[in-house]
Give the backbone structure.
Amino acid sequence: MKIQYYCLAILASIVGGSKAPASNAIDTTKLSGNISLTLEKGLWKPWQEKPTYQNITIDLACDRGQCESEAWAYAPQFNQDVDHQGTVEVTRLDNVWQLKVKLKIQSHPWQKTPFQEADYIIELIPHQGKLIGSYAGKFNNRSLGGKVSGTTAPHWPKPIANFQPVRPQEHPRLVFRSDELPALREKAKTPTGQAILAQLKRTLARQTIYYEGYVPNGGYHAAGYCFLSLLNQDKQAAESAWQIVENSMKTPGKRLFEQGPIVAGVAIAYDLCYNTWSKEHLKKVTRWLAGQSVWLLEGDTPKRGWNSNDWSNWSARARSAGGLAALAILYEPDEFFSRFLDVRRLSKIAERRIARYLTIAVGDRAFGTEGDHYTTEPWVLSLLPYLQAYRNVVGKDLVKGSNAEWFLAQYMMRIVERGNELAVPTYGRSRRYAGESIFALGMGTVPERFLPGVKWMFGRHFGMEGNKTFGISSPCEAAFVLKGYREDISAKNPGEILDRVLADEQKGFYVFRNQWQDSKDFVASIYLKRQPLRGSWSFPDVGSFRIWGLGGRWANPGISDKDGQWTDENVVVMPDTRPWNSAQPTFFLSSDNGSGIVSLRSDDNVLENSNPPVGIGLVRSFAVDYSGSSGAPGLFAVVDKFVGSPEAKEFQNKIWVMHTEGKAKIEDRTFTIEAANGATMKGTFVAPSQVKISYEKTKSGGKILATGGNEFFVVMTVRKGQAPPVKISGEGLDAMVRIGKQTVHFGRDRIFLGVF
């Protein structure tokens, strides 16, 4: 197929006609890395007897303009459940980069429709840090053409140095490689190994096996027995595992949501018991895993709750479990399968799905869009195992250079001790996270630079200095922690490893910490909800904050219900309208001691059918001071200013809300909360001047409510003993507040601290 002449004309017009740099030789160094090319209207479908066009993005791996022959593409508007495989050939590389791409386009994953070929010739040049150009092509008996835009990024996943390819039928391979087994058997004889195995045996003996429910755990129990069998060469343990696996395969989950954990557990058990089970057992499980991998990666119908968006916890559960299954059966003999199946293709699709999840669902510091419960649950059920299995089997690293590097580090920033619990002031639905399991399973994914800090926190709670459970709450976790726990790494206080302020700029999440010592540590955070994603679970928490410290949980998450109530957050609520959807940061400043200031501006909340439009926006500034200059180890300030039409009657009813664990005493314009250890938080409303404060009991403790104006300015101190006096001069948002040697005032849409 010859490229159409108008493509060159488009290319020239984009970069400036006859003066275009296309007349010069291309700098091929700009054609290296992961290259994504988006073809405008590169696909089409008939809709109501007319063609409708969709963009398609083609992903290539190139080095100086020469590309790997395999190409993959994604067109979510065409069908977001499908990744399209194809080939690429570089046909010209001088003053224009010309590519010939052929793709097999799949219209729907679970309908037995034949692949349709799409052919494109693409011409590009680098321009201002991007790639621009045009294409001509053909798909579904229609000629196509138009603009192409492209981006380059460093190669990812990262190849592993000196990787030895997996041999056919080499097992184990998912948690660790077969040549690592002798060393692990020796490690199992150490005090650490003995403690891990003791906890494994306790979980196998005490935990109930559930073949149904939201998280069927039969496969995970089977994996625990298989690990014992492998270490001890115990055939009886392998037989116990087989009985559980048979029951698991006979009891499918009612949806992909429940099927994912079943498949993940069985895949790990299959890998660990491979050299003990009979050939017939292996063939039976291989065929079952093959079918399950196809199903999990193809997806399902929304009528059964399926959410195919790459940032959804549903997709993360299913696609990582499907990927584990594919990695487990890769390179098995043809006789093990009931029909031909391209397992490598399945593995590649899982890789692409998980790569998009890591790019979109979690931010640059691994804070999850769907909140802590819906983020950490798929990570411990199948994603953390998948990331380690992918490294072992494929020889590339999906963690290194990705947002996933920060998964454990981000939680170390937020964890506060309470007894034997490592608690987190959570966001999102259900108000919980996966707890110690993120350490047990995640140890093997942590970058080397974070490991000393992880070991410090892990060791004193779950290791030999702690309860000696090694964080194992599910039997399959034992294999991961025995492999991942590093005796050669010296523990260091996380304060020596991490900054005391964490900013996830992608999601708009900020954490301020004063130290890592004990239950008295201060941790404050605020979530701007900078990147709301449609088609996934979301909570009305724009600008909501948390404050824990000195043994108290002062600003706490409220109780969460199915619908996600606005009043369950620490925000300003307007009962006569809806919550804001998102916010953007307008100011951020941090200090080495963990103090910081964040300001946000929300999107506008516009009344429906108002003409002219009547709307309101929120400016919130949040300040944290750990300097001690106020006379208290923790000082916190919040200012809420409203822009647009705050005087409109629909916006008049404004309620400042803060949930707390302790009971509050109200006096004039102040509230005082006392923790069980005698520490107190005293809050003073600088504005509104005629504030009305009340306290209501809730299922999770209580909440402070304040009304009486169109703006709020609150200063809070936490200390033991009498709170330092607060002196206010001026009124409203123009007031100056003095507490000890610290001053607090608001201006230019941000809080100012005199000592910072």
